[in-house]
UniProtKB/TrEMBL annotation:
Stretches of the chain forming a coiled coil according to its record: none
Keyword Zinc attached: no
N-acetyltransferase domain segment(s): 12-145
Annotated GO MF terms: acyltransferase activity, transferring groups other than amino-acyl groups
Keywords, comma-separated and alphabetical: Transferase
SUPFAM superfamilies: Acyl-CoA N-acyltransferases (Nat)
Protein name per UniProt: GNAT family N-acetyltransferase
Statement: the UniProt record of this protein carries the keyword Transferase: yes
Length: 145
């Protein structure tokens, strides 16, 4: 899938992903993956359904789904570079990702966010109905050794 919209290319072609740019953003700009090793980013991209936004051959945004493509998908590592924020790119990206053929008919779509609840609510995401059912193992500061 590849769409050209006002000079921005939206694509699920993992070969277009600029791993160096994604790593730089995640390791230095994100609140959820500061310090993440490049090798970890490479492995996560290789094992996910990835979407990129490109402008003039540069990575303008990124997101990925961790999914079995049958029942479950977890959205993560969503970002738009600062220079391209406020242009509606995240909304366009969400629309494309949710209607991707590999993500139709799933039982559960989920994500975690600290500050983008309003964006995701526009696409049907809401607070977890039964949070008491959810459990996790969280390794605090795993990338800060």
């Amino acid at each position: 899938m590849e769409i050209n919209d006002n000079g921005f290319i939206f694509s699920d072609d993992v070969n277009l992903v600029d791993v160096k740019a994604v790593h730089h953003y995640l390791s230095t700009q994100s609140y959820w993956a500061k310090g993440i090793p490049k090798e970890t980013v490479q492995k996560s991209i290789a094992n996910s359904l990835c979407f990129g936004i490109y402008k003039d051959g540069k990575q303008a945004g990124f997101a990925r789904w961790v999914t079995d493509r049958a029942t479950f998908a977890y959205l993560c590592d969503v970002y738009i570079e600062n220079d391209f924020r406020g242009l509606g790119l995240s909304k366009k990206l969400m629309s494309l990702m949710l209607f991707h053929p590999d993500l139709q008919g799933l039982r559960t779509y989920c994500l975690a966010t600290l500050d983008a609840h309003q964006l995701y609510a526009q696409f049907g995401f809401k607070a977890v109905a039964n949070p008491e059912k959810l459990m996790e193992i969280r390794i605090k500061d795993i990338y800060h050794k």
